[in-house]
Amino acid sequence: MEKLLSLIDSLEERHALSLTEYEYLIDNRCPEAARLLARKASVLRRRIYGNTIYVRGLIEISNVCRNDCFYCGIRKSNRDCDRYRLSPGQILECCKEGYSLGFRTFVLQSGEDPLLTDDALCDILRAVKKQHPDCAVTLSLGERSRGSYQKLFDAGADRYLLRHETAGKEHYRKLHPPDMSYDHRMQCLQDLRSIGYQTGCGFMTGSPYQTASDLARDLKFIETFQPDMCGIGPFIPHKSTPFSHMPPGDAALTCYLLSVIRLIYPPVLLPATTALGTIAPDGREKGILAGANVLMPNLSPVSVRKKYELYNNKICTGDESAQCREQLAKRMEAIGYEIITGRGDIIKTA
User: Fold this and answer.
1) What residue numbers bound the domain in which 269 lies?
2) Which residues have C-beta within 8 Å of that of residue 95, sequence separation ≥ 6?
3) The pLDDT value given to residue 349
4) Is the residue at 206 inside a domain?
5) How far separated are the first and last CA of the chain, in Å rounded?
């Protein structure tokens, strides 16, 4: 226990550990260490962001995907998936509604839909920015070419979230079909960063075949890449995937790693994800208390929310929806935090 506590103190001071030390931190986690990490993470988060929690309006614009990732409910081989694609008019209407609710960041998320061409997306981005020039737009559309990323950036996109999923090549191969490339995923992240996006990565906790060594590599990658955003959440199986019978991840490990990531890179924008709220009724509160500072309620049309099912039993109504912002605010106030709906850019201060 003494070594574990010493490593936590060292991480707080240096914001870095060796791969072996990260692995030890994961292998030897315990309730006492989790509480200590959460306290230290909360202090760092409050030092930079106070008691405010950024809220973004999530719009899931398409569940069509060309990929066949083994863990994902919208994989192309899932014939039970009820596919949809929002029209530009529907997307703009979602933004209009979100703006009236106070949101000043919109997150456009989709599968890798071949019909979401550069021209179509650029038209949407320009329209959103014309309609709401004081708002930020985050994209989460998967792997694209550097040229495509540049066009979208030039059309007004501010941020891009691309989960790396795992920083280990061997583990990546176990989660994805042979036509998907770990090296390409990592190159995409580098391209996004060099173009000028506020860039986000992320991974699943408790994903199939994941080891403490894999998680240590994820933490080391975050330490070196220093993403503006980092989305992590527990693996939750989907009934129509090859991993349907795999055990899910858990909220405790996710919260533990949220705290570690806050200590690695204190300014990072760190969501308490929908997956965390799905696997535990108070998952997002636990995530915030562990060091997260972003929530992303759903602005998608109610008619399609259940169709964007990456995993089983995804929450898509109630407090999770953007229209219930007041209830979400009360839940955050109950644990001592205040939600704000501005742009919520990263604050890179010491």
Assistant:
1) 2-340
2) 57, 59, 106, 128, 131, 132, 135, 299
3) 73
4) yes
5) 30
